[in-house]
Write a structure and sequence with these properties.
This protein is an alpha+beta fold. An 8-stranded mixed β-barrel has the order 18-19-21-22-23-24-25-26. A 5-stranded antiparallel sheet has the order 2-1-5-4-3, sandwiched between helices. A 5-stranded antiparallel sheet has the order 7-6-10-9-8, with helices on both faces. The structure holds ligand C2E and calcium ion (2 copies).
């Protein structure tokens, strides 16, 4: 750099100079005013002029103008260079470490530039010196960085490929023979990438932004089929003009690491009971399916599976049986789905399957139906055989405009629908289902708030004894005293009775309110007979219902004989029937009356129900109100009485129905004919008016 600067300045002066003396004058003037360290030496080696910097740095401290410059050179090489410069007009430059005035040595670049005449004879030599310590350090550092980088590459089995985008030159250095193939290609060589990773790689190349590093892990496409994983970082560097200049890729063989992480992931991503992938793995696979569908429009399906009444199986047959069932189900899932499908256990009795590369809904439902078939076979455990069923919700992602992330929610909605329709079935999601579920979620939220705000109350409907024409008691029926919509009947909040948590809260509330009311009536001398409270399946689950009821009765000091509990036959027949039967038996022993509600609507026959202590049989209002069912009503009354049960007819709305029932020998009547359910405050008045 120094040389060019000097030459340029010299050549400006040269053409105008006519004689050597004039030229010499010009050189002297130039050197004296040079803004850097310079000295002028004539062809007899005499020092002719120095620049202020030269003097300031003390580059030739012992020399005066006119002295032999060679005395300033302590190095034979420099001496020879200067002589050659004068003799042959050759220019030299070299780096020297020079310590001036006893200071730290610094690196100087000195230069001898011959100023030649037309004849070729050297007239003088311009000597320049520049402190290049800073620059030299950088150069040295760059060289060291290079060395370090090289060592790092060697140590880490890395391969570098540097592609000059302007000249097309490729520089490669590396160790892996597999990776070296990369250097044979001018463009990003998709050929050597595993087919499954090509799309992703192509995508990456498409989106590559200049100056931004991209990291990508992919498999190599190897003829021998050995799986080789490579991690690459690529970056396009810009030139001084801001345009892409070089593409640099670093590659590393990460097969070992990949294998290791896979082994660790196996631990982290597997469910230990069934050996199936767990929720975390499912989430990853789901994301992959979403990516594939977004990139290539791939059709994929999602299936959610929920074992029907699993909790009851666990509670009644024990956890061993529950575990056995889950394992068996995992096997069935394996048998029903393709090996490429992701079958995962999300938790508890919840399973999910991701099916990729589908062509139609039928593709998705084929394995689902196969699974339902397998489920029909009984499961053997501990010498017992039990049957199990599952509810299945399925969703298909085909609509390119829809957000595939909604798939999980959609499949859940379909699953909910399958359960709602009576379980043991599969339902494919349809957009119209969403609003139903959203309404339900909203309702449950409102009910929760209403419980906290004490908006639930009990209404009482009398049950009349036909023979004595007296009120034998009341059924407590729940009402929601809604601040805006008025008094709502249970059909407006039935979903709350099906929700495990809410039905327990509502059940608690019903017991508490009814007992408090009975206590009040007892204190006031209101002769109400008995109060019947409805119980939902969930309330039996804890196994403590009998104790709880007895504790409550004791707390309110209400005799057991004042209470009836109404249980539907489906509760008796469902899972956990042993627990229900125990609870009912205990309560019956304590004196609580047991009524079988909605009789005739379920699947139970009286023979099935023999084992349970049932005092009252309530014939469902659908039979009572349908004249064509008279024969059934008659038969039920006859059977009931023969088994020592009193029979109550529900939904009696007119005198005709009442007369017919009396004729058949029915014991008690409940219905609008006598009274609609009424608030507690109206009960004393009703009792007074009745029978008078
Ligand atoms: P349910 O136990 O069968 O109650 C009898 C239903 O028949 C009541 O409906 C009652 O108002 C209605 N009913 C009575 N007489 C007549 C009549 O002559 N004609 C007609 N059309 N209907 C009549 P409600 O009060 O709407 O209750 C509906 C269902 O909600 C109940 O059926 C019961 O299954 C459930 N439920 C009500 N309160 C509770 C409760 O506290 N806990 C639980 N678990 N369920 C309850
Ligand atoms: Ca009832
Ligand atoms: Ca009923």
């Amino acid at each position: 750099m120094t040389r060019t600067a000097v030459r340029t300045q010299v050549s400006i002066t040269t053409p105008d100079a006519k004689t050597p003396d004039v030229r010499m004058d010009a050189f002297e003037t130039f050197v004296r005013h040079a803004p850097f360290a310079a000295a002028l030496v004539d062809n007899a080696f005499r020092l002719t002029a120095v620049s202020p910097d030269w003097e300031r740095h003390g580059l030739s401290p012992d020399l005066e103008i006119g002295d032999d410059f060679r005395r300033a050179l302590h190095n034979a090489e420099d001496l020879e260079s200067l002589e050659r410069c004068v003799a042959f007009g050759e220019s030299f430059s070299r780096y020297r470490s020079i310590s001036l005035n006893g200071a730290e040595p610094r690196i100087w670049r000195t230069e001898f530039a011959a100023t030649a005449m037309e004849t070729g004879r050297t007239l003088a030599v311009i000597v320049t010196a520049r402190d290049v310590s800073g620059y030299a350090e950088t150069a040295l550092k760059a060289e060291r960085d290079q060395q370090r980088l090289k060592m790092a590459l060697e140590l880490d089995d890395l391969m570098v490929r540097e592609y000059d985008l302007r000249t097309g030159e490729i520089y490669c250095s590396g160790t892996s023979p597999e990776l070296e193939k990369w250097c044979l290609f001018k463009t990003d060589p998709l050929e050597i990438v595993h087919p499954d990773d090509r799309e992703k790689m192509a995508e990456l190349v498409r989106n590559r932004k200049d100056g931004e590093a991209q990291v990508f892990e992919f498999r190599l496409n190897r003829d021998d089929g050995v799986e080789t994983w490579v991690r690459s970082v690529g970056k396009k560097f810009l030139g001084a003009d801001g345009k892409p200049e070089r593409l640099v890729n670093l590659f590393k063989d990460i097969t070992d690491r990949r294998r290791h992480t896979e082994a660790v992931e196996n631990l982290a991503f597997r469910d230990s009971l069934t050996g199936l992938p767990n929720r975390a793995y499912f989430n990853r696979k789901f994301q992959e399916a979403v990516d594939a569908s977004e990139m290539m429009g791939e059709l994929f399906g999602l299936i959610m599976i929920d074992v029907d009444h699993f909790k009851d199986i666990n509670d009644t047959l024990g956890h061993d049986a529950g575990d056995a069932l889950l394992k068996r189900l995992a096997e069935m899932l394996h048998a029903a789905f393709r090996s490429g499908d992701t079958v995962a256990r999300l938790g508890g009795d919840e399973f999910a399957v991701i099916l990729r590369g589908l062509h139609s809904e039928a593709d998705m439902m084929r394995p689902v139906n196969a699974l339902q078939d397998l489920l029909r076979r009984p499961i053997e455990h501990g010498g017992r055989s039990f049957s199990v069923s599952a509810s299945i919700g399925a969703a298909l992602h085909g609509d390119p405009d829809a957000d595939p992330h909604h798939m999980i929610k959609n499949a859940d909605i379909a699953l909910y629908r399958a359960k709602d329709e009576g379980r043991n079935r599969s339902v494919v999601f349809d957009p119209s289902m969403r609003s139903a579920l959203e309404q339900r979620v909203e309702l449950l939220r409102d009910v929760r708030a209403a419980i906290a705000a004490n908006e639930f109350v009990l209404y009482y409907q009398p049950i009349v004894d036909i023979a004595s024409h007296s009120v034998s008691g009341f059924e407590a029926l729940m009402r929601w005293d809604h601040p805006e919509q008025g008094v709502l009947t249970p059909d407006r909040f039935l979903a709350a009775f099906e929700d495990q948590d809410l039905s327990l809260k509502l059940g608690d509330m019903a017991f508490e309110t009814a007992l408090k009311q009975m206590r009040e009536w007892l204190d006031q001398g209101v002769e109400f007979g008995r109060v019947a409270v409805n119980i939902s399946a969930a309330q039996f689950r804890s196994g403590r219902l009998a104790q709880e009821v007895q504790e409550r009765l004791a707390r309110w000091n209400v005799p057991c004989e004042r209470l009836t509990i109404e249980v539907t036959e489906n509760v008796y027949m469902g899972w956990g029937s042993e627990m229900v039967s125990d609870t009912v038996r205990q309560l019956h022993r304590a004196g609580v009356m047991i009524a079988l509600d909605d009789f005739g609507t379920g699947y139970a026959s009286l023979a099935n129900l023999r084992q349970f202590p049932i005092d009252r049989l309530k014939i469902d209002k659908s039979f009572v109100q349908n004249a064509e069912d008279a024969a059934i009503v008659k038969a039920v009354i006859t059977l009931g009485s023969s088994m020592g049960m009193k029979v109550v007819a529900e939904g009696v709305e007119d005198q005709g129905q009442l007369d017919a029932l009396a004729d058949y020998g029915c014991d008690q009547i409940q219905g609008y004919h006598f009274s609609r359910p009424m608030p507690a405050g109206m009960v004393p008045g009703f009792l007074e008016g009745f029978g008078r």
